Amino acid sequence: MIRAMSALIRLVEITDANRDAVVAVRVHPAQERFVASVEKSFVHARENPEAKPWFRAVYAGDVPVGFVMLSWDNVPGPGLHGPYFLWRLLVGAEHQGRGYGSAILDEVVALLRAAGAADLLTSYVPGEGSPEPFYRAFGFVPTGEADEDGEIILRLELGSRP
């Protein structure tokens, strides 16, 4: 677990018991063009098993505050980045600004390091209000590439994080 400001977060497997509460976590409406919903994430995971989707709910205490999904140790190829790719990261609108996003990434980085990963890729949709500043502040840097949808690819060298 990671201390995010005054709350502990934990990554929790999604089950029938917590699925509805996790699906109810939504970003601010102005952010919806930059990040797909939890429900759409589940659809993308089912439709792309070759991406080796790995996802977890993010809880602060007993409350789901976010969601994270990665491609976990996949074989990169057309339309597949990796082997480790941060596919989805969202924090519910009412929980933003409390350090949860960084805490989630800190936890993901620790898990990836334990798995022997050297770096983590992600992407963002360019535009006003995009998550680019958040990712850049965390340490991600542009690779100079864009994906087939025009999303800018970023890389985080896991050794660069304390």
TrEMBL record:
Query: GO MF annotations for this entry?
Result: acyltransferase activity, transferring groups other than amino-acyl groups
InterPro entries (alphabetical): Acyl_CoA_acyltransferase, GNAT_dom, Sper_AcTfrase_N
Query: Quick check: keyword Nucleus in the entry?
Result: no
Q: Which PROSITE patterns match?
A: GNAT
Entry superkingdom = Bacteria
Q: Does the keyword Phosphoprotein apply?
A: no
CDD domains in UniProt: NAT_SF
Keywords, comma-separated and alphabetical: Transferase
N-acetyltransferase domain boundaries: 9-159
Name this polypeptide is given: Diamine N-acetyltransferase
Species per Swiss-Prot/TrEMBL record: Lentzea albidocapillata
Lineage of origin = Bacteria, Bacillati, Actinomycetota, Actinomycetes, Pseudonocardiales
